[in-house]
Amino acid sequence: MDKNKHDKLSTYKTSWYENNGNGSVIYQHTKIVDWTDDKIILNSDGWETVTTKRKMNQTANQFCLHFAVYQENYEWFVVTPKGETVPFQDNMTIRRN
Fold first, then answer.
1. What CA–CA distances, in Å, run from 80 to 13, 17, 39, 85?
2. Is the pTM value of this prediction over 0.70?
């Protein structure tokens, strides 16, 4: 398995910026991850797909945001930077500290 596939974002239908600890990743036309020094906002815009989830996790890895999104029994969950597991919701905000 190609480890880089899971660690870095590709440019396919994806753009991002990072500036002084703030940033955003846009996949298709949806801002799927938006972050500041103290919070992260996750949004699938209703597209809870394997690719959206992978790109969220790639974002977390590439920008050291310390969260993870996974699926269990057709439901998405987020492991927060504090290690808590919570159900995924569009436009959810999780604290970084």
1. 26, 22, 11, 6
2. yes
